[in-house]
Structure formats: C-alpha cells, structure tokens
Amino acid sequence: MKFIAEINVMPLKALLDPQGKAVTHSMHSIGYKSVENVRIGKHITLEIEADNEPHAKEKVDEACKKILSNPVMESYDFEIRAMD
Length: 84
Known about the structure:
three-stranded antiparallel β-sheet; alpha+beta
C-alpha cells in the first residue's frame, strides 16, 4: 500500500527562533501588533510504500529521527493517510 505522510518539524520551544523573531518584528512594523511568538519550521510531504499503516508510521518516525529533524534542536509530528 502507498501512504502519504504530512510531517511538521519545528524548533524546540525552549530554543530561540531567530527567523520567527524576525517575522514577528516585521509583522509589528507593518501594523500587525497583535501577532506574537511566531515560530518558523518546515513542512514535508512524502509518499511511502508499506504493508500497513502501523508499518508506514514506523518508517516515517525513523526517517524523522535519522534524517528529517535534528532532535537536539527540533521536534516533529506527522499524520499518515492511505493514498486513494
């Protein structure tokens, strides 16, 4: 079966996010004063072949841990759905 994984990788909340701070500042300077604490991350979509959904989740989790995120600085979450 083929699955699609939607993965979000974000900087850990305890760490400074320079991109997020810059965007927050820029938004304030153009009048969006109510916007606070912008965090910038990455969104990854991939297709994966697996026997079943639990196996697909296991493969995606492994890819996130080994390649797609830096566990020292980032956290991740993902959703998987079967392809039509």
